[in-house]
Amino acid sequence: MNEIRRETRHEIRLRVNGVTYELRVPARRLLSDALRHDLGLTGTHVGCEHGVCGSCTILADGEPVRACLLLAVAATAHEITTVEGLAGPDGEPNAVQRAFAECHGLQCGFCTPGFLTTVTAGLRRDPCPTRDAAREMIAGNLCRCTGYQNIVRAVERAAELESAQEPAR
Ligand code: FES
Ligand code: FES
To answer: Which residues form the pocket of ligand 1, taking CB atoms under 6 Å from any ligand atom?
Structure first.
C-alpha cells in the first residue's frame, strides 16, 4: 500500500503592515492566499491569479507587486503593505483613498485595492503626473466597471491632495 506523503510545511515570518506574523505554509503557498486565508487580510483581492488583472497588487518594500505571482516563502525578505496598511495610524484614509471616494473612482470595488496600492506607489515615483502619466500609472490594472475616466481623475486628485499636505512626503 502506498504511503500518503504529507506536504512539507515551512515556518516563516511575514512582515505585513508593520506587524510580524508567524505561520506554517507549504512552499507552493501564494502570498495572495497567505494574506487572505492565513492572515485574514481579505482586502487583497484575487481575480485572475495569473498576474494579468492587478487586483492582488500589494507593496513589497514600497514597490507594487502581484501577490498572486509571489510565493509566501519568498515574501519573508520584504516589508509587505496591503490595502489595509495604506491608511494612517489613526485610520485616516490616505490621499489616494480619499481621491477615489471623491472622484467616484470605484463601482463594485473589486479592483479598487489593487488600484489604491498601485497609485500610492506610483505617486511616490511621480508626485505630479501628466494625464498620460496617470493613465500609464494604472495601465497594468483592469477594472470592469468604471471605464477608467474617474480613476484617472482620482490619480490627478490624489496628486493634488498630496501636494497640499504638509510636510511633503
Ligand atoms: S489576481 Fe493577481 S494579477 Fe490578477
Ligand atoms: S470598480 Fe468594479 S471592477 Fe473596478
So the answer is: 46-49, 51-56, 66, 68
